[in-house]
Amino acid sequence: IQQTAEKLHLFALEEIIIEGLQLTNPYQIAKLGNLKLGDSLLFLNTRALEKKLSALPSIEKVQVRRRYPNILDIKITEKKIFFLLQNKALGTTKKPNIQFTLLNKEGLPIVTKPASSQEYRNNGLQNMKLGDYFIIEVALPRQNLAWNKLNQEVTENTNTNTSSSQPPRKTMSLARQQARLQQFFALIDHLPSEEQDFFSLFSGINLRNEYAGMRLYSKDGQRTFYLGNELDLEKLRKARYAYLYMLQAGLHFRKIDVSSRYVHFLAS
Q1: How distant, in Å, are the alpha carbons of 38, 106, 126 from that of 18?
Q2: Distance of CA 241 to the CA centre of its chain
Q3: Among 71, 79, 146, 178, which one is most buried in terms of CB atoms within 10 A?
Q4: d(Cα 258, Cα 152) in Å, to the nearest integer?
Q5: Selection from 227, 231, 228, 233 nearest residue 187 by Cα
Q6: What is the DSSP string of the chain?
Q7: Which pLDDT belongs to residue 5?
Q8: pLDDT value at position 10?
Q9: 195 pLDDT more than 60
Q10: Exposed/middle/buried for residue 239 (C-beta within 10 Å: 0-12, 13-18, 19+)
Q11: What is the mean pLDDT of the chain?
């Protein structure tokens, strides 16, 4: 019956209308759904199509409707990506394995399995640009990449005794990085409403270095703010005020230390 309907062009698909896409590649939608012009709408399984499309990492909700005689409407609600957790995974090779976990504004993972930026693009996030999101830099061992294993590994690392004869590591422990990560999300949640421009001024934060301390990067890529090894709300606010002051005064210092009571402009 299906072959007969297609030969007779009964309710043949002539147009696919996709609404709600910003990140996802529309061609990925058509490819994943195996949608072809000329197929009969009568035999299109809308529920199965919705299930397939919902598997894409950027998609929150899908609604597929036939509009007879020849139009297919696909309405998509994408997940809102706010943070990218950038992990330079530790391994045996000199070249780091850089992978990302997509997070919402509350710091919860949109996709629990990390992937490289190219892998995300290959899986439908064609328009994803790293510069559009606030990047949180960490360095976790390869076996700790999966977000849902992170808390378990933190516990195991914390309970493991290490020899005092071991040389100090430049990259801090998994437990400390996780603690910093949780603290960061707790702090930004308490930013006053008039300071919510924080994420339009800064592009990311580095939480992974033990001795150089945490670093905050300006959106223009020209300035680094040194936060020290202890993170608190006052330092984040101080970095914001210092940056706004520099922009207003036309100052071009590239390194700014806000880790102590006073702001120190270190280099121009």
Answers
A1: 17, 28, 15
A2: 26
A3: 178
A4: 34
A5: 233
A6: -HHHHHHTTTTB--EEEEES-SSS-HHHHHHHTT--TT-BGGG--HHHHHHHHHTSTTEEEEEEEEETTTEEEEEEEE----EEEEEEEB-SSSS-EEEEEEE-TTS-BSSSS-B-HHHHHHTT-TT--GGGSEEEEE--BGGG-SGGGHHHHHHHHHTS---TTSPPPSBPPHHHHHHHHHHHHHHHTTS-GGGTTHHHHEEEEE--BSSS-EEEEETTSS-EEEEESS--HHHHHHHHHHHHHHHHHT---SEEE-SSSS-EEEE-
A7: 46
A8: 66
A9: yes
A10: buried
A11: 79
> For residue 117, is pLDDT > 90?
no
Q: So what's the pLDDT on residue 211?
A: 72
Largest CA distance in the chain: 80
Alpha carbon 15 to its chain's center:
33
* 44 vs 17 pLDDT, higher one: 17
Contact indicator for 40, 12 with CB cutoff of 8 Å: yes
Asked whether residue 12 carries a pLDDT value surpassing 90, the answer given is: no
- The rounded distance, in Å, linking the Cα atoms of 229 and 183 is 12
